Amino acid sequence: xxxxxxxxxxxxxxxxxxxxxxxxxxxxxxxxxxxxxxxxxxxxxxxxxxxxxxxxxxxxxxxxxxxxxxxxxxxxxxxxxxxxxxxxxxxxxxxxxxxxxxxxxxxxxxxxxxxxxxxxxxxxxxxxxxxxxxxxxxxxxxxxxxxxxxxxxxxxxxxxxxxxxxxxxxxxxxxxxxxxxxxxxxxxxxxxxxxxxxxxxxxxxxxxxxxxxxxxxxxxxxxxxxxxxxxxxxxxxxxxxxxxxxxxxxxxxxxxxxxxxxxxxxxxxxxxxxxxxxxxxxxxxxxxxxxx
Length: 292
Known about the structure:
Elements lengths: L5 H9 L5 H17 L4 H8 L3 H10 L5 H13 L4 H11 L5 H19 L2 H13 L3 E4 L4 H15 L3 E3 L5 H7 L8 E5 L6 H12 L3 E6 L12 E4 L12 H18 L2 H15 L12
Parallel strand pairs: 1-2, 1-3, 3-4, 4-5
């Protein structure tokens, strides 16, 4: 496969036939497509010295329904390739210096909204049902996704007696923890750009052993989506040098809530037992005893 994305190669081929203004846009995209992906049409036009309408026409004349579609393509193309330095540079294009907090939090809210729109309700219900039927649930995620996997495993353990959090520092430990997985079990893999090779190979191992494979990821083009029986999608765009995990966490919260609802009154019995243990062993601080 060529190291150049098909669209960039297309621009290079069409370059001699472009107008002067369109050549300026093409030059910028070919040189700094990682920045262009996060710029509005107006910002891109200002950067290269053309009007916003010229940028919109450039997108339309190169096969896109509009500039937003071109921008989305560029974002998807680069997300799994960006280094942490490139992520920070791209985020600086999106976040103005005087409204960083507002812009970052609004971006998170927008990702939750998009996740709600794109996640299949049918797939969501199928995953909840599969969790209920599974004898063991193996949950894995590495690097930044490890926080999501740990959170899911910690709370799923309250709802299901057979939860295994695949917490390993080496490849051998990963497969040792997955050693007994079989067709009666489930493996939930969580991975977002940049995708972890260990998560991919571990999920393939679990599926080869007959387990139900579930991916929580950002797109159907994700390498773990292709290995999975069920896929839950959550938006995860770069807000700074790391990706925002707000939308994936919200999706996981919804999954836990649905699993709790599916258990009916059984979950209340479990929680009553836990509350007794937490109280007996003083797990949490008693705020009522604090001096005012």
